[in-house]
Amino acid sequence: MPVTTDTDTDTDTHTDTDTTVDAVVIGGGAAGLNGALMLARSRRSVVVIDGGTPRNAPADGVHGLLGQEGVPPAELLRRGREEVRGYGGKVVAGEVISAVPADPSADPSAGPTAEGDPRFTVTLADGSALRARRLLIATGLRDVLPDVPGLAQHWGHGVVHCPYCHGWEVRDEPIGILAVGPASVHHALLFRQLTDDLVYFTRGTGPDEETRARFAARGIRVVDTPVAAVESGQDGGIAGVRLADGQFVPRRVVAVATVMRARTEGLAGLDLPMEDLPGGMGRHFATGMAGTTPVRGVWVAGNATDPTAQVGASAAAGALAGAHINADLATADTDAALAAARRVTL
Q1: What angle do CA 89, 93, 95 make, to 5 degrees?
Q2: Are residues 138 and 265 in the same domain?
Q3: Is pTM beyond 0.85 here?
């Protein structure tokens, strides 16, 4: 699951399995860390479980994030972990293999609890377990590329998917769009803003005549011949696209819309609702305002629920979810204190 650890020493340990923390955050990317930051600054005990596989690991820099333009993804996350720790939060390296609701009455460290104040048990691959009052799921997503030989090896460099994340860096290059469905038409128009040399490989998607006319008006060349492979050049970058008839189309960049699937490993026990993206382009967690879910005590933030969110939007969603979790805990704390006070007076 989740996100980043630069070195073996850039992690905390969490061995106190007898204590229930206010929140466990599953995922150490922008959404998870910013949610944890909000909770830690509110004096909540919070543990982030970080699986060390961020979606944007292949990228050279984060873009479109005010004040952090171009910062390497690993550096941004290193700073984030440091900030969370600065307020008392913990960041633990590990993979979640199970997250399930637990019985609040079986929590020996709970003390007086409000009715309906939930508990969860989170188990890691190393066999350790944590107990939590609330969960923030920020596992991110996995990008699935088309099965085109030579494509995957250039992912994050010569192969890009987002004109806002990578567009400036590939401006004025010969770009090829590998179509995967209707979404690729819009994709092409966005990348046309960045280069005058754009080729649209239809790959059997069959754009209609109106689409072809719009492409022609913008100087976008359409190639209907099936794609056989993406080929590398002597410099290690992309040299071009080889077609099924042997023709070679020189390209330096290939843009493709990926299938985006939320990372759900270890989370089946929470029974969180899922939604499909249109056109078979992926699957994500279904959430309400601020990442709420129908499962009491569980929030979801970032790409796991909003596949198109860039780093800034994911971080903002994490912060909002963290604030809502703190408010929910404050209500539960007050309910428990009131119930305890009334028992004393009886």
Answers
A1: 120
A2: yes
A3: yes
